[in-house]
Amino acid sequence: MPPRAGAGLRTRLRAFAGTSVALALLVAVTAALAAAYPRAVDRYGDAGLRQAIEQARPDRTTVQVQAAPPWTATVQERQALFRGDRLAEAWAEVLATAEAPLTPDRDQSSYGVRTTVPLAVSAPRIPRPAGLPAQMVLAAQQDLASHARIGAGRLPRATGEVTATTERVEAAVTADTARQLRIRVGSVIHVPDARGGPLAVRITGIVKPRTPAGAYWSTLPALRTPTLSRLPGSRPTDVYWVGGLLLAPEAGPVLLRTPGRPERYWNVAPDVGSLRAHDLDRLTSAVAALESGPGVQRLRASVDEELEARTKLDETLADHAGLRSGIEPLLLLAAVGTGSLAVIVLVMAGGVAADRRRAELTLLRARGASLTGLAGRLLAETTAVAVPAGALGLTAALLLLPDARTAPAVAAALAVTLVACLVLPLRAVAAHRTVRLHDGGEDLGRARTSRRRTVAEVTVLVIAGGAIAALRRQGSGSTALVAAAPLLTGVVAALLLARLHPLPLRALSRAATRRLRGLVIPLSLAQVARSPGFAVLPLLALLGALTAAAFGGSVLAGVTAARDRAALLDVGADGRVETTAGTLPRDLPDRVRRLPGVRDATEVSVVNDAKPEQSTQPVPLAGVDPDAYARLSHRTALGPFDAADLRQGAAGTAGGAGTADGAARPLPALASPRVAEEYGTGPSTVLLPDGTSVTVRIVLVRARTPAVTGDDFLVVDRSGLPAARATTLLLTGDTLNGRALRSAADGTGATVRLRAEERARFVDSPLQSGTERLFGVAVAAGAGYAVLALLLTVLRTAPERTALLARLRTMGMNRSQGRRLLILMALPQALLAAAGGVLTGWACIRLLSPGIDLATIALASPSALEGAALRTDPLSLAVPALAVLLLAVGVPAGQAWWAGRRGSVRELRLGDG
């Protein structure tokens, strides 16, 4: 830049220092938010994917490649295949075949030789729980020394060359195996031999795994920890131990003499730290290629034609993909809603700057400045401010949110900076296409709209209406429509409100002129009618912000309500104390009622295996006190009913109870729909586990009930059951203390479950919690941009209002009247914007709720509820609208107060008034 041009630019920036600082701050914050969004999505997505794989256990997420020795090969050829050098060559082929982004974790991946069928072993100390011998898996796994610490003895070694005829080998066991199976250093375990003579395995060491939960030890868990197992079809008590023996890595060929069907294996554990959520599709393809695609074909050609690969990693990825696909529309919704508001505010900021400099730019055009030169001059000014600010915002986002992709963040920050640079020049060019010295005032009450604008508005209305209708038909799978839904609703509302705005102004203006004798109200209405400030763009910003806040708040409220509902269905009340064996102590209910935070405790006697006489399927039977249980059902909204319908005698009999011989008057019963459909409304005999029976008649049908969490149940008056004792306490209270409740139930065999604790368990993935945080930030950012849009709208007309007050004060208007005038001038527009925002938010939620299901983001297991619907949240509708109303009225009031303190002389110029 030439020295004179640079000096001129610095002079202009100093002349508009306040505007430049405000623009820089706006661009920096907006660029930081824009750059932070994709990085936050990446971080939450990566954390969710890694957690999903870590929770799935290594035996499911490891790609297990195995190959049995060719049955046509000689013994010598099989022994050669089982030796370490051949295994290592094949291991290098397997690692090279794994395609990115499936990066193997070389430290946790493993290979070696093992038996695929556990072998019954004999040793004097190994326990036999049911008289059945323990069974062992033998494995010669490579690199044992670097994955285990010596607890006792030493690692096994191979003496000489081990072959299929070797009779004695050494092995190690883990500390868990040694403890459970009573194995010591020096123990000799005899393994059956396919040729008759047993293989003697001498234990030389007890090892402790360095990372027990890692894939090296957990892909085949029997090598790490023995488990109890039983044969299919046998009795539950016929169990035996299954453990693992770790042979020396060079002792693999000895497994050929056992009947355990030995095989070679190469376990490829994915490097969890290198996985990225945005590579999910490529990762799925890489797993499929290695498991059953080109990868396994290459391995069959280079390693063994009978080689096979298997894994459950693809199922884990599919589950995570389902979670992500349910959350992505909502993530995009937050981005589009807040991003559109940011763009509108940037455009409005450029418009305010252009209006403030209208006189200067008009004079330049009158003196011969070209549009190109004018645009270039303004572009240089805004670039000098916006580019450093955008770079600062991008840097802040990169530093605050590390370990995520940089390209999307740079693109987002660059887009914000580009918009900020271009708005002022484009607005100036549009406003000064022709040279003119004076702009006439615009009377909104009388102005006519051009045909082009009418056609454009009708076109936008048709497109927006069609998009909303398509969303209601297609549901949340229509990602683009879901993202644009609040914005489209705001566009429709803004266009309609801008069109309808003059009508009430005309009516109010005529009524005020005819009937009111004062000065302030008619003057304020006349000024509002002539004001050009109530344009579509600021109105769209306000309505869009209010709609986004209402929509985001409703999403968060719907998520909270869904989790509360799911937790309530699981627990049945705010707290639940129950025992599955026996009954609760008689004094426990009174002790629990006296605990702090407990409002009420309802005693219930639940029999889980009651059997109706005409069915073989057991049905849970709950005996309750009708009055207390009815209060609980009304309080929890789980199948509320009238207590009188469940009392003895309510079924048209004079009372009665169950007897030992089954002869009983029917008790009125509350049943689930399936039970009621199966047994009808006639008397039914229900057999109890103690040999007694009770006759019931179904008089009430409810889908849910607090005492039983399943879909099948019967609820009767507890006094009609023979010798019924409480097995469950259903507690209500807002501040239940889990520690105090568990202390009171200690020693009774009862378990304590709290609704608040169950609710916390529904957040299973960082992707869910991250989406909630992003929505919260989006709502806050939308509210901030709404405030900025309102301030820009007010600032745009602030000089005219100040000059108006100055003129009116020279005519005798006092300060109090001036304040009332500015407040009344702002009130109609603020009321219309606030009311329009509330109606738009409400309409958006009502229109779009059928197409959006919040179960994916709300619950770890979406099957816990039939669906989590989007519901209107009154606070999200009312609070932002009231804030807009107060701010819209408060700013002019403050301006009037400040103008009154400054006086009126300096606001008047030659020719004013």
What are the key terms here?
6-stranded mixed beta barrel; single chain; flat; 21 strands; 12-stranded mixed β-sheet; 913 residues; 4 domains; alpha+beta
Spatial shape:
flat
Sheet/helix structural class: alpha+beta
Largest sheet: 12 strands, mixed
Give the mean pLDDT. 81
* N-C termini distance: 44 Å
Quickly count the domains. Answer: 4
List the uncertain runs.
1-5, 440-447, 651-663, 909-913
| Proportion of strand residues | 5-15%
Helix content: 40-55%
- DSSP, total strands: 21
**Radius of gyration, CA atoms, in whole angstroms:** 39 Å
Instruction: Please count the helical segments.
Output: 28
Could you please describe the fold and organization of this structure?
By secondary structure, this protein is of the alpha+beta class. It is flat. Helices cover 52% and strands 14% of the residues. The two termini are 44 Å apart. The chain has four domains: 1-56 and 312-321 and 338-438, no CATH class; 63-309, no CATH class; 440-553 and 764-913, no CATH class; 580-749, no CATH class. The strands form two sheets. Strands 1, 2, 3, 4, 5, 6, 7, 8, 9, 10, 11 and 12 form a twelve-stranded mixed beta sheet that branches. It has a six-stranded mixed β-barrel with strand order 14-15-19-16-18-17. The longest helix is centred in the middle third of the chain and has 44 residues, at 313-356. The chain has 28 helices and 21 strands.
